[in-house]
C-alpha cells in the first residue's frame, strides 16, 4: 500500500535539513511527497541520465508513491480526510484540554484564597479566644495558670465589696422574721463574708483565725509543644470559647488536693486553707445566697411599685421600721449592689479561672483546644501550597498545548490552500474556497 511504501522510503533519505523538517512529527501526505521529490532533484542530480530520468532508487521510490497517490485521486481523499480530522476532532480536543486547564487554574486559585482566608480566620479565632482569657497565646498552659495567681486578690476585693450588703441582708432578715416563724440564721455565709471579708474556710468552719495557712500547690504546666500530628481536614472548630463544661453554683469541683484533713489547732491545710470564695463548695453557697437575696429584692421592688394596693399597705403597718422605711429607690440601689457582686463571680472569665484552679486537666483541655485552631491554620497553609503547585502544573500544561494548537492551525491553513489550488486547476483555475475550516 501507499503508506507501507512511504514508511520504507523514509528509511533511506539523504542528509538534508528541509527533509528532516518535513518528516519530523507530521503525517506524510501527497503534498509532502511532492516537496520531497523537488528536494531530491537537487540532491540526486548526479543520477540523472540524458533522457531526463533518474537512476537513483530514492527518486524512483518517491515518484512511484506520487503515481499511486494520483491514481483515482486517492491523494485528494486522504488530504480531505486529514483536513476534516484536524477541524472536527484534533483542534477541538486540544482547545478543550486548554479550556480544562484554565478552569482548573481558576478553581485552584479560588481554593487557594479560601485556604488563605481560612488560615487567617483560624488565627484570628485563636487570638480572640486568648483575648477572652486575657492571655497572649505564647504559652497557653502557663499563661492560664498565671492568671490564677491573681485570683485571690480579685476575690479579696469581692469580699470587701460584700460589706455594702449589710442593709440588704438586714432588710431581708427582718422581712423573713416578720412574715414567718423562721428561726434559723438567714444568709449565713453571705452575712459572714459581709462582716469579716473573704476569710479562709478554716475560720468559717471553726470560728477561729488560722495561725498557719498551708495552701495547695498547683503543678506548673509544661511549655507548649507543637507536635506534627496528622489532623483530619474534617475537624470542625466552633466559634467562641465554649468547651462544653457546665459551671453551676453549688456544684462541687475536684479540689487541688483531693482531700481535706484536719491539722493541729490553728493550722489550715488543703481545702480549709482556701478562701471562702476560692473553695467551690462555699463559693457555690455564697452565690446561691446572693441569688436568693437578688430574687427577694426584685420581688419586693415590684410590690413596692404597685400603686393603690391598700391591702398590702395595711399588712405592713405593724412591720419593723427597717421594712417600712424602705423606698423603691433604696431597694433598687441595694439590688444593683447585689447584681454587681453576682456578675463579678459568675462571669465567663471567672468561671474559667475557677475551673483552672480546681482542675489541672482542664488547663490541658483548654490548651489543646486552643492549639487546635493554630494546627488547623497551619494545615490550611500547607494545603494552599499544594494547590499552588497543582495550579502551576495546570499552567505548564496549558503552555505546552497552546503551541500545538498554533502549529495545527498553521498546517491546516496550509493544507486548505493546497487543496483549494489543486481543485482550482481542475476547473480552469476558477477560485475555490473551502468554508468552515477553523481550528
UniProtKB/TrEMBL annotation:
<dbReference type="Pfam" id="PF05600">
    <property type="entry name" value="CDK5RAP3"/>
</dbReference>
<protein>
    <submittedName>
        <fullName>CDK5 regulatory subunit associated protein 3</fullName>
    </submittedName>
</protein>
<dbReference type="GO" id="GO:0007346">
    <property type="term" value="P:regulation of mitotic cell cycle"/>
</dbReference>
<comment type="similarity">
    <text>Belongs to the CDK5RAP3 family.</text>
</comment>
<dbReference type="InterPro" id="IPR008491">
    <property type="entry name" value="CDK5RAP3"/>
</dbReference>
<dbReference type="GO" id="GO:0012505">
    <property type="term" value="C:endomembrane system"/>
</dbReference>
